[in-house]
Amino acid sequence: MKKQYTLLNLAVALLIAITSFSQNSEFIYGDALPDAPVLSARGAYKVGVKTIEFTNKNQLDILKSKGTELAYYDRKLKLEVWYPANINSNEKEMVVYDEVMGSSNDPKRPIIPFSFNGRAAKDAKAITSEGKFPLIIVSHGYLGSRLLLTYLTENLASKGYIVVAIDHMESTFRDAAGFPSTLLNRSKDILFVLNQMAEVGRSNEFLKGIVDSDNTALIGYSMGGYGVLNVAGAGYSDNSLKLFGALTGGSTALATRLGSNAAYKASLDPRIKAVVAFAPWGMERGVWDGESLKGLKIPTFFIAGSQDDISGYEKGIKAIYSGVVNTDRYMLTYMNARHNVAPNPPPAESLKPGLHIDEYYRYAEPSWNEKRINNINQHFVTAFLGIHLKQKEFGKYLDLPQDSNAKTWEGFKPRSSVGLELLHALPEGK
Hints:
By secondary structure, this protein is of the alpha/beta class. It has helices at 2-24, 150-157, 179-203, 223-232, 239-244, 262-267, 290-293, 313-323, 358-361, 370-390; strands at 46-60, 72-86, 95-101, 112-118, 121-122, 125-126, 133-139, 162-167, 211-221, 272-278, 300-305, 329-334, 420-425.
């Protein structure tokens, strides 16, 4: 009987150990795969996360304006903020994010709530003893949400950045509305949030004294890429008014963001030091032309799929890269990837039978492992922003052979840098 009892205890202990290991080894979006490149690793800081909201009052309501009869409304923007945090030993660096899939304006894709885990502590106290941290503002696609790139936002916060991701009103899964709102408001929302975060750093106890808004980077995906490039200096072409006139009800509201507009040129913000544009949309539709692209003078890192069928590649993203001749720029290409080179991996809920395939293909790439893409993005974004916002000596991770198949890239595990291309061009005359 004693022997049986001992064996029972051993079996229970083994079960507890296996369960504990399983829980501790749960894969969270952004965790490193065995072949993750070196700079994808989490940084030295613990990460806090907090949800806040800003309201941009009395803005043009492009969806309700008709001709000269203009309507106005308050744009409420929900934001997720990740930051270096003081976390006690008894406090878990773990959060549950509440998200949805589907589309509020598509009856074939009903809103389906789901949740997923992240590595951050909700409402933890920020570190205030180390001075200021550079600011990063993240803009999602259409449709999307502020939680679409948590693998990257958490990772960057762990490396000493304050990262703010925007829910762009009328452009999220929950509140999808007419496309003209996104066309008009994307860049305006980003500028507004930059100013608000600067104020938070001055007066709000939450992050008071630690937001270095004078040292800001922008990250945008798809329509977010459309927005961040415009904020950074790539004014829209004069022809874009003709292209989008019908969509915007004949209004000239978009004229304020044209490269030829003096007011637009005056809006360019010297606080912005670097830009990362994932699959930016618009070039194939004439949003930019050769002249308007010349206004971008801030270092920019483009990330694209060679088979992008949303933003286009040769006549889309690559044409933007080639046209921004006045800036130091890179372009990382995932060969045979389509448009989804930025988001988190597909959630488990998207695998359920009977769902619209777009719930899965909102995240998934047909030729790539999304977790692998996430690690590579972490690596290159860390290198690029580290150089321009923290003056890190990361140049060796960008000074690479163009073709990753030719030789293992610096920072990659042996035999792991395949299927990638990295282009680099300096400003004209340099």
